[in-house]
Amino acid sequence: AQTVTQSQPEMSVQEAETVTLSCTYDTSESDYYLFWYKQPPSRQMILVIRQEAYKQQNATENRFSVNFQKAAKSFSLKISDSQLGDAAMYFCAYYGGSQGNLIFGKGTKLSVKP
Amino acid sequence: DTGVSQNPRHKITKRGQNVTFRCDPISEHNRLYWYRQTLGQGPEFLTYFQNEAQLEKSRLLSDRFSAERPKGSFSTLEIQRTEQGDSAMYLCASSQYRAGDYEKLFFGSGTQLSVL
Predict the structure, then answer these.
(1) Is B1 on the interface with A (CB under 8 A)?
(2) Backbone phi, then psi, for A84, in 5-degree steps?
């Protein structure tokens, strides 16, 4: 069975600084997708960034980028120039072709200090 | 508003009562998902539909839970004989699934259930 592990329950960053959130996963599949979702206090899950496993190039979306290490099954999220609005729960998620749903990690609570 | 809509936003009920939640997906989306999220945890998959067909159910979905999507549009999730352990946020998501492509799920704001 596929699993997603986020080993950092909480992280803190100073405004305008850079922070990296960690995620590891376990799967026997070769084709899959990985995602980072943001959940602010409103509780609505917002897609931040996605990565296709067959792509070697790391995905980037403005201030958000990932470090995808397929062999190590690692998928970290880097947030550059952190803003107060980045404060939220961040969930790493896995989607594989043999299943019809997302598998989420337990999340990392990110605080941004002014 | 063209996003995923869930009603009600909050539900407080007494143990043993039945509750029903509704989810209206984005109109052209063919897949609809239900997830449950407890405090401090990530969402856990419950079930999903492709059009009106329920394709998968998690072992988390006990016999007291039933979900329907009668016309392939909105969906309802009913919990019978609620227990305090059912207290959670129930999230709905929808997507336009195409074979061979990834699914971008759009989530609603959830229904927060409190069982007293």
Answers:
(1) no
(2) -55, -35
For A8, residues 6+ apart whose C-beta sits below 8 A from its C-beta are A21, A22, A108
Q: Which residues of A touch B108 (CB under 8 A)?
A: 44
Question: What does the alpha-carbon distance between residue A99 and residue A35 come to, in Å, rounded to a whole number?
Answer: 15
**Residue B111: helix, strand or coil by DSSP?**
strand
pLDDT in tens, A40-50: 988 889 999 99
State the Cα angle at B87 between B15 and A111, rounded to 5°: 155
CA–CA min distance B88, chain A (Å): 12
Beta-carbon contacts of residue B62 (< 8 Å; ≥ 6 apart): none
Give the Cα separation of B88 and B39 in Å (integer).
Answer: 7
Instruction: Provide, as residue numbers in chain A, all residues whose Cβ is less than 8 Å from the Cβ of B105.
Output: 45, 47, 102
Averaged pLDDT of chain A = 93
Asked if B66 and B78 touch (Cβ cutoff 8 Å), the reply is: yes
CA distance B40 to B102: 27
Least confident of A2-11, A45-54, B30-39, B93-102: B93-102
Tens-place pLDDT, residues A6-24: 999 999 999 999 999 999 9
Going from the C-alpha of A103 to that of each of A29, A82, A92, B45, B56, the distances in angstroms are: 14, 27, 8, 7, 14
Site of tokens 């072709």: A97
Question: B35 with B60: CB under 8 angstroms?
Answer: no
Is the peptide bond preceding residue B70 cis, with omega within 30 degrees of 0? no
**Quick check: B93 and B106 in contact, CB under 8 A?**
yes
